């Protein structure tokens, strides 16, 4: 909550170094942000190649326009918003980020290997992943931004180009669905044992 | 200004930023630390919310390969030198080349030795381990082998099983080549661990089949009873509690099958070819249904076979069935039911999806 905690100060210093042409700082920004950006990009666009190309172009443009950039309180937020703009421009011909689930089959959960979290059975995560795929694309995106990338509702609204109420609605309706359906699955599993 | 958190419901916890940060270990909070003791009745909900948050976070996890990250960075370095906004074309062959290199390394690893981790391959490291008891079968018919712990292994033709003198000391570790059926004696203290062609299977006490022929691309594990966890060899090596009785990895229950592709290192869960009834006591009168709502029929099948049937119960709420099913396989049973209902079924991962239009007039 404090505007200038250590992490934010470090980030600002690195950002300023980058703006003044420090290549090491630029590399540092790339390395801290690239996995998160690819994760998010792949969640909203099924074409992994296109996502990688967009991240690449994003950083090239970032470097080339560095002198014109303002200080930012969150580099991550700035990059996520820019990446989304890029990707939605790319997919505009066929309506940007459709609400339907046309792409959902691409991320078939049964063929992914799950990261272990020792507290949670892989089973439970798998059930959750399957249920998440039943949400609309935009609900999935909002859940990803909030619970994986830790953005606030305000930031999510801005990244997704929505007003605050709509963003909150997306998240809560998504959560409600997950809660009801994941619970249901747990219940079924209990009956089986 | 603070909302009354004493009556928080699951959704309220999940939506609360300070709770999220605490639950995910991102921030310390005296408030949430003491919350559970202060409101003991809330404890189950807090736990449920915490686990849901952890699962939500884990469910979103992904990591791009380092070589992709490096390739993008190389292109950024090239692209940023140019004054104009250039789109750097990264030829597809670059990626193909990178992928081929990775494959070649794995393949080379398999064929030209260099296997240091025990159990990663078969010949080299197993031969290197001395004091191994070897059981093999070249008789042309299945052969039963009883292990010192009481477990019974049925080796198919050409299967080889090895274990060292420490078997049954702290753990029960064996190495398998070929196909075998395991009926493992239950011992929750000493996990039974099977290494087979890059896949590690860990169980406490149960029965299942492993097929790990050296010539096959896939290793499969099919569960008959109990619970089994499988994990690729390289991940197994990095697990902190690999010898502990805790089961982590892809957990399989009866009638489920894991297919591990040695080439792509993908592990997928599906159903065995012919699911069997897991609990005879749950079979309702030999599957004879008279004017039974079809949703109840589905629920009965689901319970009897331990397989999740996914269907929209509101679609089928007006459907009833008169049907006597007995010795047919599960899939034949479903075929009969679906034909009657004008519905279809298909296996999706380890579940069966049933779709139809229902029976409204």
UniProtKB/TrEMBL annotation, chain A:
Ranges where the RNA polymerase sigma factor 70 region 4 type domain occurs: 126-178
Gene Ontology MF terms: DNA binding; sigma factor activity
Keywords: Coiled coil, Sigma factor, Transcription, Transcription regulation
SUPFAM superfamilies: Sigma2 domain of RNA polymerase sigma factors, Sigma3 and sigma4 domains of RNA polymerase sigma factors
Gene Ontology terms: biological process: DNA-templated transcription initiation
Keyword Secreted among UniProt keywords: no
Organism: Dyadobacter jiangsuensis
Every RNA polymerase sigma-70 region domain range: 34-87
Family annotation (InterPro entries): RNA_pol_sigma-70-like, RNA_pol_sigma-70_dom, RNA_pol_sigma70_r2, RNA_pol_sigma70_r4_t2, RNA_pol_sigma_r2, RNA_pol_sigma_r3/r4-like, WH-like_DNA-bd_sf
Protein's recorded name: RNA polymerase sigma factor (Sigma-70 family)
Family statement: Belongs to the sigma-70 factor family. ECF subfamily.
Highest taxon, organism lineage: Bacteria
Keyword Plastid: no
Coiled-coil positions: 118-145
UniProtKB/TrEMBL annotation, chain B:
Gene3D superfamilies linked to this entry: 2.60.120.1440, 3.55.50.30
Keyword Transmembrane on entry: yes
Pfam families reported in the protein's UniProt record: FecR (PF04773), FecR_C (PF16344)
GO molecular function, one term: sigma factor antagonist activity
Keyword Transmembrane: yes
Keywords associated with the record: Membrane, Transmembrane, Transmembrane helix
Record domain FecR protein: where: 139-228
Domain Protein FecR C-terminal, first and last residues per copy: 287-354
Chain ranges passing through the membrane: 92-110
Protein name in UniProt: FecR family protein
Species this chain originates from: Dyadobacter jiangsuensis
């Amino acid at each position: 909550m404090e505007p200038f905690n250590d992490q934010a100060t470090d980030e600002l210093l690195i950002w300023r170094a980058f703006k003044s042409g420090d290549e090491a700082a630029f590399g540092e920004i790339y390395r801290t942000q690239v996995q998160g950006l690819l994760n998010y990009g792949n969640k909203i666009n099924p074409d992994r190649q296109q996502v990688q190309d967009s991240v690449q172009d994003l950083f090239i443009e970032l470097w080339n326009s560095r002198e014109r950039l303002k200080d930012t309180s969150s580099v991550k937020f700035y990059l996520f918003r820019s990446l989304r703009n890029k990707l939605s421009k790319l997919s505009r011909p066929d309506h940007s980020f459709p609400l339907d689930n046309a792409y959902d089959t691409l991320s078939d959960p049964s063929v992914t290997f799950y990261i272990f979290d020792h507290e949670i059975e892989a089973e439970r995560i798998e059930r959750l992943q399957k249920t998440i795929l039943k949400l609309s694309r935009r609900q999935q995106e909002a859940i990803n931004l909030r619970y994986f990338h830790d953005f606030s509702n305000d930031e999510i609204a801005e990244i997704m180009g929505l007003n605050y109420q709509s963003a909150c609605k997306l998240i809560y309706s998504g959560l409600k669905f997950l809660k009801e359906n994941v619970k249901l699955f747990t219940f079924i599993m209990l009956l089986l044992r | 200004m603070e909302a009354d958190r004493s009556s928080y419901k699951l959704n309220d916890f999940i939506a609360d930023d300070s709770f999220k940060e605490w639950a995910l270990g991102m921030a310390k909070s005296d408030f949430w630390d003491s919350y559970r003791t202060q409101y003991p009745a809330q404890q189950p909900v807090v736990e449920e919310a915490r686990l849901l948050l952890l699962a939500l976070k884990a469910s979103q996890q992904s990591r791009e390969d380092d070589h992709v990250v490096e390739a993008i960075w190389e292109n950024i370095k090239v692209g940023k030198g140019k004054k104009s906004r250039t789109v750097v074309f990264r030829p597809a062959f670059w990626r193909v080349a990178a992928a081929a290199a990775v494959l070649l390394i794995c393949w080379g690893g398999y064929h030209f030795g260099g296997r240091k981790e025990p159990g990663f391959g078969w010949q080299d490291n197993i031969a290197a381990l001395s004091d191994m008891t070897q059981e093999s079968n070249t008789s042309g018919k299945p052969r039963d082998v009883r292990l010192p712990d009481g477990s019974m292994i049925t080796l198919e033709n050409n299967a080889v099983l090895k274990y060292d003198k420490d078997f049954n000391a702290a753990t029960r570790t064996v190495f398998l080549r070929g196909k075998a059926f395991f009926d493992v004696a239950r011992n929750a203290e000493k996990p039974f661990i099977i290494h087979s062609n890059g896949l590690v299977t860990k169980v406490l006490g149960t029965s299942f089949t492993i097929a790990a022929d050296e010539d096959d691309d896939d290793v499969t594990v099919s569960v008959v009873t109990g619970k089994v966890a499988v994990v690729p060899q390289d991940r197994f090596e990095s697990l902190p509690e690999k010898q502990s009785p805790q089961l982590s990895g892809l957990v399989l229950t009866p009638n489920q099958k894991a297919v591990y592709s040695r080439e792509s290192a993908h592990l997928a869960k599906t159903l065995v070819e012919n699911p069997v009834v897991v609990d005879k006591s749950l079979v309702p009168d030999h599957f004879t249904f008279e004017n039974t709502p079809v949703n109840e029929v589905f629920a009965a099948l689901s319970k009897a076979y331990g397989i999740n049937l996914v269907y929209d119960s509101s679609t089928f709420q007006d459907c009833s069935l008169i049907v006597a099913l007995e010795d047919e396989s599960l899939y034949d049973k479903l075929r009969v039911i679906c034909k009657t209902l004008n519905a279809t079924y298909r296996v999706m991962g380890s579940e069966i999806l049933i779709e139809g239009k229902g029976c409204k007039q």
